[in-house]
Amino acid sequence: MAGIEVSALHKRYPDGTVAVDHVDLSIDDGELFVMLGPSGCGKTTTLRAIAGLERQTTGDIRIGDTLVNDLPPAERDIAMVFQFYALYPHLRTRDNLAFPLRAEGLPKSEVHERVAEAARLMRLDPLLDRRPRQLSGGEQQRVALARALVRRPRAFLMDEPLTNLDAELRADMRTEIKHLQGELGATMVYVTHDQVEAMSLGHRIAILNKGRVEQIGTPLEVYDRPASLFCAAFIGSPPMNLIEVEVADGKLRGQGGLVLTPPPGLPRDRRLVAGVRPEALEVTAPGAERSVPARVVSAEWLGDEIIYVVDHSGQRDVRVRMPPTVRFAADAPVGLRHTGGTPAVYDVRTEELVA
Amino acid sequence: MAVSVDEAVSAGPARGRPPAARRPGGRGRSVLEVALLTVLAVVMLFPVLWMIETSIKENRDVYAIPAEFFGFTVTMDHFKDVFVAPDGGRSALSVAFLNSVLVAGASTVLATVLGVPAAWAYSRFALKAKKDQLFFILSTRFMPPVVVVIPIFLMYRQVGLIDSKLGLILIYAAYNVPFTIWMMKGFVDEVPAEYEDAAMLDGYTRLQAFRKFTLPLLVPGIAATAVFALIFSWNEFVFAIFLTSSDSVRTAPPAIAGLIGGTTVDWGLVAAASVVFALPVLVFAYLVRRHLVAGVTLGAVRR
Ligand SMILES: Nc1ncnc2c1ncn2[C@@H]1O[C@H](COP(=O)(O)OP(=O)(O)O)[C@@H](O)[C@H]1O
Ligand SMILES: [Mg+2]
Questions:
Q1: Which CATH number is associated with domain A238-347?
Q2: CA separation (Å) from A56 to A106, B27, B129?
Q3: CATH assignment of A4-233, given 3.30.2350.10, 3.30.70.370, 3.40.50.300, 3.20.20.100?
Q4: Which residues line ligand 1 (CB under 6 A)?
Q5: pLDDT by residue (tens digit) across A269-295?
């Protein structure tokens, strides 16, 4: 296993599309690193550049201590799992697994042993004699993972491997991948556009937007203090409420009188927006202490929680996460209160975190 | 039994009308269908039937008025004449058939060998002005052979390819390569590039990945494309008649045409030669029909 170092990566396709503008990543040995971003932000391109399937326009890629810029994919000793599983359709599971090993020219007994081991790890024994089209989506993806495993590569690259699976299977596979990664101590770069997947899998998450890294951090860091308005809107379901605020007599005041605790070191003369998580707000009875008058627009009953959408003067569609025991009817007049700690505050113009 | 159920259900209101006639696929409709198709088939196939009949008639029966459809004396002499010369040696026609097999076969193989990798490259790689290149390649097919045959005749005379099988093979291949590239590109587009990506990560070079993974998946497409190329080369007449003159080089189409035009025409021989000429492509297309249908429809449907 080895770490991966990506510095100043830039990729411009021959048709002029700049898929990756500037990306720096430093992935540790044994880390499960997630690249998260909306479709088209350059995740696949970055991954393919690491794999050697795409040559970057400028920038360096190091795997372990080796500068791999000019190495073909075969010599980078990396395995990749694709969104579309890319199992060879004319080969049985057994041969699909053995394939990369035969390509390496390993002796028969060793091939057999490693295939058996990977099949055991991914519980594929009953499927060994089937061809890909006789396997379900989940099974195909397990085979694809096993095929990545048999080679014992220096790192695993995964490009949205679970996107084609249904929700339940996806949750199972997520657990499985995380477990496997821990077991093997594998370096893994995992690409997804699904923030839930990113949060639940990653040791660290890099959020990409338009070919640039917006933020790198642990799931908690990324959740608590999104580095930009983009990250704030991307992470969390529902995402943060962005509330325009002013600094006045030592408090942050939103329009309509909502009062928040200001973080230290706020700049004075700029337009600011506070990012407030739905769970940092509370819907109360109208007129409760420190609350501002508001109105329930709608409520989503999710069983374990209720997401209230409320309007209060000057601010529409504020989302509030409440326990299922607290019930307000739609259109009911209520109070809205901030209960969390200091919120993240952003400059409206630069869209970046200021405090 | 489906009919009886239907009759039982609709017995009341539908009285007087045969219920089967109203249903798609019912007996009334199928009778009409069969009748129509039969008429069509007879009209369409009449020239072919007439050709086959003529090929097995004595020459005096060929000219009989009114024409005899049945009851003539069957003879295989014409077929014998196609292959055997009057002096007992090989006939000029049989040489022409062998030439046709060689020229059509070799030019198809050449077009496929050149066209398939080109199609793969056009499908997989980002190239400068790719669309313009592809359009240019196709544009070489815009001109019918008869338009370009004179300049090609002059060029061939310069380089000594006139009246040679190699000359025909080259010009047919040149005509088939653009077609092969265009048709095969559709098939290659259908094969996900991830197979090759995965193979390259597994330790193969790009070319090995193509040969080992993409190529086997392209076989139906290659079969379909090759059949079309083969049919073009097999049937081609204009280049053949302009660029070749000696019996030892001529392909079958000009050789058969050459049978017509003397003071007397041996129609029986012409018909027999035509039958022999038509058979190989029919047989070949029949043998690869599964690939042909799968191939043509696969290329037409986008993912
Ligand atoms: N081969 C290519 N040629 C030209 N543009 C491409 C190519 N591959 C991807 N792109 C473009 O580059 C951008 C980033 O693509 P990609 O890396 O696939 O994004 P993601 O995986 O994050 O969805 C997109 O705008 C996409 O259209
Ligand atoms: Mg992608």
A1: 2.40.50.140
A2: 32, 67, 21
A3: 3.40.50.300
A4: A 13, 15, 17, 19, 37, 39-45; B 126
A5: 888 999 999 999 999 999 888 889 999
